[in-house]
Amino acid sequence: MELALKTTVAREDLLIGGRWRPARSGRYFETVDPSTEQVIAHIAEAGAADIDAAVAAARAALHGEWGQIRAAERGRILLRLADLIRANQEALVALESLDSGKPVSTIRRQDLPAVLDTLTYYAGFADKINGQLIPARPDALTYTVREPVGVVGAIIPWNFPLMIGMWKLAPALACGCTVVLKPAELTPLTALRIGELALEAGIPAGVLNVVPGFGKTAGAALVDHPDVDKITFTGSPAVGRQILRAAAGNLKRVTLELGGKSANVIFSDADVEAAVKAAASGIFFNSGQVCSAGSRVLAHADVYDEVVERLASRAKSVRLGDPRDAGTSMGPLVSQVQMKRVLDYIEIGKREGARLVTGGTRVGHTGYFVSPTVFADVEHEMRISQEEIFGPVASVIRFTDEEDAIRLANGTNYSLAAGVWSADIARVHRMVKRVKAGTVWVNTFGPTDVRLPWGGNRDSGFGREHGDVAIENFTEPKAVWINTGR
User: Fold this and answer.
1) What integer is the mean pLDDT of 345-350?
2) b/e string for 107-145 if b means 16 or more Cβ within 10 A?
3) Active-site hit among 45, 185, 291, 388
4) Banded pLDDT at 10 (limits 50, 70, 90)
5) Residue 306 appears among annotated catalytic residues
6) Answer CATH for 263-449 from 3.40.50.1970, 2.130.10.10, 3.30.70.80, 3.40.309.10
7) Active-site residue, 257 included
């Protein structure tokens, strides 16, 4: 099967129980190209009744064909899905760019390869989810097995729809769970295409349901639903807190990957050119719409001015423009609301007394483009240093010594990621030990891999995705005790 690009589709329906159907309410909402502000398509708006239908379909599939299929066959189906994604990758890249404003070059280089890597990695896990033989007593055979956690509600964000969607889908399906996937209302299109390809790959009806809609209706109904066993969510801390409270209704399991205000610490003995190159990528990549973005660049006093100058120079060289142009390195923000949020924070930074070195403006009158922005003379207590902006805005903060760097790096409510740049290996080890972050990059910034755990704590959420940790997220251990005595 080959996907059509579907850039002119009038309507997109929900995928529930293996069938495409309109929302029960009959309502549709628009999805918009962030670079042109033109409507791409009208999307069926899932409500509580549609969530009920999707959860029922997922529950039936869990106890039906999917629950009876051999684990190795689950893995083969996921590999077929990977093959179909690979065969349709150009259509998916184009659609992701159209819906989110991400440059096609970025999607080809990072998002699509990560989708395929994640899917093939967990496909290999499907028949290797083992229990343990535990010799508790001589008169008993005692062992454990791991069973699917059940029906999973997966709520994904708009900044990496394809990639983060697969972070959740692949391990859940490999473990034998069924999924109700709610993509962000701003970027629903590639999730719907993945649902289409999943059916073509042989995933039984009801195993994967795709229900675009709004958080206050579809998302809330999914989290509240008493027949959902697990919620996995990536998004903002505010919504994460709401999900955690709502999930208490039936004590469903929850994994939250939330925000970040990551520190990128550059010591005076670092390779400053390499550090600033990575710092620029760390904040301007995906227009700064990255939970682990290096939005706080902590520079030692001895190299502070050099870091500011080099970072501003790199900001000015960023090629901002049409995301479909292969030469574009930064596209628009995802929506008018997000653009206003970023521009408001830039005004806050100026009012607080930070020095705007470069950028700080909307670019053009069409599309949600904001110029790459660098603030210097940022004080630790300023809002642009403490609050997640989620845009291409770097705050450069001066530090004096290692203790000062630790205080600043750990001085926010977030703990997702951090970077350390130094040639002193002893200092590196001290920093790695003391920085509160789920991931610490040393003399680099930003790479991730499905084989390594990903997540944080505090306002960055809790739980980890990726690696074998994800198998624990989507399975429940069961203890078995067989009396062998007389």
Assistant:
1) 98
2) beebbbebbbbbbbbbbebbeebeeeeeeeeeeeeebee
3) 291
4) low
5) no
6) 3.40.309.10
7) yes
